[in-house]
């Protein structure tokens, strides 16, 4: 009796009723585990696997994951965050924060609120704070109505 037929009979006797790939049969004939996943079989047979995650590939022979982009791989190799998009990488390298507009960053760095309106930002950045009426909270260039501006001391 050939080894493949012997393996099939053993499976039938144990109640297993499934089709095995050639690679699985080869593993079973050698007495090795026959319940490998497709990804594991690809790795076993060809020495490569395209379905493993980056973390798994690092453990397996320090291979590179084929699902990562070239930029992500470069960042991964240098120990930097591998999840950033290309635009985020460019901003990160230039020292910019890609989560906030530049005008809001100026307020953040000085400890001011970052959700200021554009008019308030223009006023604060343009040095026009002397034009504001501290008592009413109304800028002098706005006629009528009130301005919801809290004056900082």
Beta-strand percentage?
under 5%
Low-confidence stretches: 128-138
Q: Sum up the overall morphology in one term.
A: elongated
Task: Tell me the series of helices and strands, N- to C-terminal.
Answer: HHHHHHHHEE
| Strand order in the largest sheet | 1-2
Radius of gyration: 32 Å
By DSSP (H or I, 4+ residues per run), the number of helices equals 8
Annotation keywords:
single chain; 153 residues; 3 domains
Short description:
The chain is mostly helical.
Can you offer a commentary on this structure?
With 153 residues, the chain is an all-alpha fold. The chain folds into three domains: 1-51, no CATH class; 52-96, no CATH class; 99-128, no CATH class. 44% of the residues lie in helices and 3% in strands. It is built from eight helices and two strands, in the order H-H-H-H-H-H-H-H-E-E. The chain has helices at residues 3-13, 22-29, 38-46, 54-59, 70-77, 86-94, 102-109, 118-125, and strands spanning 132-133, 138-139. Strands 1-2 form a two-stranded antiparallel ribbon. A hairpin with a 4-residue loop joins strand 1 and strand 2. The longest helix is centred in the N-terminal third of the chain and has 11 residues, at 3-13. The model is unreliable at 128-138 (pLDDT under 50). Residues 1-35, 74-153 are annotated as: Disordered.
Write the layout of secondary structure elements.
Elements: H1 3-13, H2 22-29, H3 38-46, H4 54-59, H5 70-77, H6 86-94, H7 102-109, H8 118-125, E1 132-133, E2 138-139
Biased composition (Basic and acidic residues): 1-30, 89-111
Region (Disordered): 1-35, 74-153
Biased composition (Polar residues): 134-143
